[in-house]
Amino acid sequence: MRRYKKGLALVMTTAMLLSLAACGGKKEEPAATTTEEVTEETSEEKTEDVADASDEIQPGVNLIKGGDFSDGVGTFGTYTTNGGSVKLDVNDDGELQIDIANIGTVEHGVQVFYDGFAMQEGGVYQLDFDAHSTIDRDIAWRIQLNGGDYHAYATETVSLTGEPQHYSMEFTMEEGSDPAPRFCFNLGYVESMQEAGVDAASVEAHSIMIDNLSLVLNDGSNMQEVEALAEAPKIKVNQVGYRKNDTKKAVFTNLADDDTTFTVVDAASGETAFEGTLSEPSEYKAGQEMDSTGDFSELNKEGTYKIVTGKGEESGEFKIGDNVYEDTYKSIVKMMYLQRCGMELTSDEAGDFAHPACHTGEATIYGTDKKIDVSGGWHDAGDYGRYVVAGAKAAADLVLAYEKFGEKDLVDEAKYELDWMLKMQDQTSGGVYHKVTCASFPGEVMPQEETEELIVTPISNAATGDFAAVMALAGRVCDDNKYLDAAKKAWDYLEQHKGDRGFKNPDEISTGEYPDKYDRDEYFWAASELYKTTGDDKYKTAMAEYIDDERNLEGMGWSSVGMYGCYAALTNDKLLTDSSNLRKTIQDYFIGKANESVETSEKNPYGVDFTNSFYWGSNMGVSNSGMVLLMANEIAPDEKYVKCAKGQLDYLLGLNATGYCFVTGQGYLSPQNPHHRPSQATGKCMPGMLVGGPNSNLEDPYAKAVLADVAPAKCYIDNVQSYSCNEITIYWNSPLIYLMAALQDE
Ligand SMILES: [Zn+2]
Asked: Catalytic pick from 89, 138, 466, 727?
């Protein structure tokens, strides 16, 4: 092939490749966070453009773009695990040169991959490539599911020598069509080497050269089309149900022009319980659809119902009654328990998700030989990492819910996380380590099977600030000095380290980064909680330092946390008669945000606080809006806040453009295939998990392949591979728990 002029052409970092390859452990923040943070996070997650899988499925066309490497490495990427080490380049002969320093201890210890094509059921394909190696060895090529159990649709092991050879194989895609599979070379300790008794450690550093790689469709005559995204249901309701005295609304999408009425029918008897007329249809731009609404708030007789339109469109069944949320609430709280790390979950308690104590070994502090015990806490998400900034948000939501609504089980659950967080504090300095994970994401295994070395990453101001805040909150609510003492110690660290901002993953670590360069909102939250708990004026003085910049007051995520600080200030009796500008500035900001939320929600047919685009973890944004609205009602009571908060819940439980109830195991259409390792490993979907929801930024290969032309509000796919739509986290469940605890309390 043509000589390639430049050196290393790989643009993606190892971290990006790994996040692409294994898991999106790192979730995004609301758009309301600082621009700087969003840009940073987005650029970290972005991979090179993945080719559009929808075009060029004609026979004879190479599905692997750039397979002759005349334009460099292109979109080929690498994945390494279990000690594997690799570098990609195109050499002077125009071949892809793969320099392998270490093959690792598993077949995929070193992997070179290509995404961005589709495989269609019944298609007959042919793979061709030329290859040679500086040592004699076996390699395996695979076309595989890019997620879940990563099983192969087609694979073959071939032996390489110093002589360039041509390899070719024809095969039929026997399984269902896959719009986003992965082609890869497994270049680690491949099975045939294991069987032959080759010692992995004795395999010397070597180079493998690949060229003229092509995958073509030979025969499409028996081929099935790639299935299009299923159309959303025409009638959307809160699938869990409505309480007797709540507003009850359904949304009707793209009905026939003459379909203008609806009835609510008793599901058992078939009798009509309510008759209504639909509103005039209007365009919902983010959904690219025409929507009408039907209000049946008057119907308050307990029962199980469905909705039928004049022309016969039907919804699924839902309930009306005072206790309709009880099961859902229990299930989302139980999920936190099921995410517990470091203790045995018995089958009595955890059913299919029982496991022995996991991650109990001591962890090494990064860059040292020092080992510490950091067992406990919740697994963060679909992976098994434990991250302080994420855990602080989740624990805070539960403790705040307990503080306000008195649900005792919430504070007991939160203490499991808080007690782990105490172990993450450096006893000498008071600073708090950012996270503890293995070097990379695990495969699709139960937690006790992730047995690689645990690494504690360096102290960050963001983690220390969040820690100080949530420990001060716990110190007040739990009446336990150990929390408040830890909070004060963390505050002293923060005072001595102003300006030491940011956290970046060390090079060798590719698990969720949760980067946060801006720490002044964490300082504000910590000062505000410490002032509320201790009454010590030094914290009030500190608070006043931060109110000049709205960035310090905004957000309820893992990155921007200012609104927690606002809430602590506005519910602090000592500030009720504050004559300075402190309380007024904070209250104007907080109530202003709540009012904006109401205005935006009222303009949306689904009653949700979103406009035209949806970000990674948009369902956390919806839940957080619900929390803020309820808090606003506490500070400046107004029924509109409560009504709007309930609307956010309706959205999450099915009244949205996708028609999904976003909590697993609830409603009649809910996610079955979450990106969540225990669910993947057991083949069962853990109940009670809130998935990320619509994300119009398309931030994983599967989403790019199947959602490219989909309206922003419907950019959601229930597929295990789509970690940017369908992962779950503790801090997406936690604000929903707050919201539902409030309604339980009414
Ligand atoms: Zn664990």
From this structure: 727
Instruction: Report CA(343)–ligand 1 centroid distance (Å).
Output: 8
Q: Is residue 251 domain-resident?
A: yes
**Tens digits of per-residue pLDDT, 337-368?**
999 999 999 999 999 999 999 999 999 999 99
409 CA distance to ligand 1 middle (Å): 21
Q: State the pLDDT at residue 26.
A: 40
Residues 575 and 607 in one domain: yes
Name the residue with tokens 């004699």.
Answer: 136
- pTM greater than 0.85 (yes/no): no
d(CA 114, CA 544): 53
Q: Examine the domain organization and report whether 585 and 712 are in the same domain.
A: yes
Dist. CA 131 → ligand 1 center (Å): 42
Please report the pLDDT score of residue 39 as a whole number.
28
Q: What is the mean pLDDT of the chain?
A: 90
DSSP code string of 710-732: S-GGG-----TT-HHHHBB-HHH
Structural domain tally of the chain? 3
pLDDT given for residue 224 in this prediction: 78
Q: Which residues contact 446 (CB under 8 A, 6 or more apart)?
A: 355, 358, 677, 678, 681, 682
Model confidence over 572-610: pLDDT tens digits?
999 988 888 999 999 999 999 999 999 999 999 999 999
Beta bridge partners of 459: 433
Q: Which of 355, 379, 434, 675 is catalytic?
A: 675
Q: How far is the centre of ligand 1, averaged over its atoms, from the C-alpha of 228 (Å)?
A: 38
Q: What CATH number is given to the structural domain containing 300?
A: 2.60.40.10
Clarify whether 412 is annotated catalytic: no
Expressed as residue numbers, the domain containing 263 is 241-320
Which tens digits make up the pLDDT trace of 89-107? 999 999 999 999 999 999 9
Say whether both 203 and 251 belong to one domain.
no
Closest listed residue to residue 359, CA positions, set 425, 457, 456: 456
Say yes or no: 256 and 383 in one domain.
Answer: no
- On whether residue 8 sits in a domain, the answer given is no
446 Cα–ligand 1 center, Å? 9
Contacts by residues 572-580 (CB-CB < 8 Å, ≥ 24 positions apart): 572/528, 572/531, 572/532, 574/531, 574/532, 574/535, 574/540, 575/540, 580/544
Is the pLDDT assigned to residue 68 strictly greater than 80? yes
Ligand 1 centroid to 355 CA: how many Å? Answer: 9
Please, which pLDDT band fits residue 7 given cuts at 50, 70 and 90? Answer: very low
Q: What is the pLDDT of residue 421?
A: 98
* Tens-digit pLDDT profile for residues 249-287: 999 999 999 999 999 999 999 999 999 999 999 999 999
In a shared domain, residues 463 and 412: yes
HEC string for 592-617: HHHHHHHHHHHHCCCCCCCCCCCCCC
Q: State in Å: Cα 358 to ligand 1 middle.
A: 4
| Structural contact between residues 241 and 303, judged by C-beta atoms closer than 8 angstroms | no
Residue 562 lies in a domain: yes
Ligand 1 centroid distance, CA of 439 (Å): 15
Active site residue 549: no
Q: Is 322 a catalytic residue?
A: no
- Which among 383, 407, 417, 519 is annotated as catalytic? 383
- Say whether 718 is catalytic: yes
Residue 225 resides in a domain: no
Same domain for 292 and 330, yes or no, is no
Rounded to the nearest angstrom, the gap between the alpha carbon of residue 746 and the centroid of all alpha carbons in its chain is 31
248 shares its domain with 132:
no
Give the CATH number of the domain where residue 88 resides: 2.60.120.260
Same domain for 464 and 440, yes or no, is yes
CA–centroid distance, residue 529 to ligand 1 (Å): 30
